[in-house]
């Protein structure tokens, strides 16, 4: 293959060594779960469960050999605790960012109430059926809208990547760019990818707890435009969770 074509393919496909920024998205470990009769507000910001802490450590071990230069996380405890486990292996701190929070599916449910109490059993059951049919957050009564969540997640991750990369020294031609990790939520990962690729549904896949998804960012885009683009490299890696029987959703 001609060298110019090989280089063009490398740029088109964002091959490693093209100076792109590698971003490792990690879903948080399993959180402690409130009882079935608990209000929806109890599910907003629980810490990691004992199993979740083991999952976070497994992810940290899996990423111990990565050349991480920074770790970012949602400010919700289950994500920030996962980020802390990963960052500790690299002697890094965690930069918390509330823009990385999970979708607010109970955003407008009154404090201390459940969604069943608020909208009634019939409406709740109809919403569950709509969620399966449409695969969009808009089906959930009183939820943050799909459009607002997707746009917010997409903008937040792009802003984190651009801001970080702007402060890095120039990358020599043929050398890999920087690598960062973002510990966040399954909804955020799906929302970012769906918005980046123009996919209408909100549910692309179900990330496992402490699963790993890699995305490569070209900050200028294929024609040196300002738009930039992102390419999914791997999705939902979880081989690091299998040996200990740590795979949960």
From TrEMBL:
Assigned GO CC terms: cytosol
SUPFAM superfamilies assigned: Phosphoglycerate mutase-like
Family annotation (Pfam families): His_Phos_1
Coiled coil: none
GO molecular function: phosphatase activity
Protein name per UniProt: Histidine phosphatase family protein
